[in-house]
Amino acid sequence: MGKLHERIDDRLRSFIEAQPVFFTATAPLSGDGHVNLSPKGRAGTLVVIDEERLAYLDFGGSGAETIAHVRENGRITLMWCAFSGPPNIVRIHGDGEAVFRDDPRWAELIGLFADADGPGARAIILVRARRIADVCGYAVPLMEYQGERSLHAEFLGRKTDEEFAAYCEKKDFIETSVDGLPALPLPLPPRTV
Questions:
Q1: CA torsion sign, 172 to 174 to 176 to 181?
Q2: Tens digit of pLDDT per residue, the chain (193 long)?
């Protein structure tokens, strides 16, 4: 049986922080636009800020649909599944915001990620929870976590900030989404922190 929560309490926070992967879902306002669903990983790249706010690092590598959608309408859902231990699924429906490198809040927010920060961080997605729910997760399979993949961090770690900015400018669907919405502002502002 599902349960609604008024806040991200200690139990939910512990569950969220223990999961090695989570998923984000966003969509444009247009009925014929593309819904985006993305898996997110890399230890330490998601933080629970307080009882109603979370943030995660948005790295380069693929498109920028999540950024485009939260810039247009702010709607975002985050989901965590227990692939080991007791079954559980947690969803947070919220209002998302992309915080870019030139935003005055960048320095404070990026500090929340400590060692998980890296040269490929292009934005921080800040989420304020509107609806917090968990459900049984009885149908989610049991799977064994083997560890972190290092390829993404290693690939981006070989690039200087200038090389990363050039990499972003060459990719399709970075400055605008597949539906033509504004996404990552280019040229990418340099890292100052």
A1: positive
A2: 589 999 999 999 999 999 999 999 999 999 999 999 999 988 999 999 999 999 999 998 889 999 999 999 999 999 999 999 999 999 999 999 999 999 999 999 999 998 888 879 999 999 999 999 999 999 999 999 999 999 988 999 999 999 999 999 999 999 999 999 999 999 999 988 8
pTM above 0.90, yes or no: yes
Indicate the CATH number of 3-170 among 3.90.550.10, 2.30.42.10, 2.30.110.10, 3.10.450.50: 2.30.110.10
List the domain boundaries for the chain.
3-170
Cα angle, residue 8 at apex, residues 7 and 12 outer, rounded to 5°: 135
In the chain, the amino acid numbered 54 is L
CA distance 77 to 56: 13
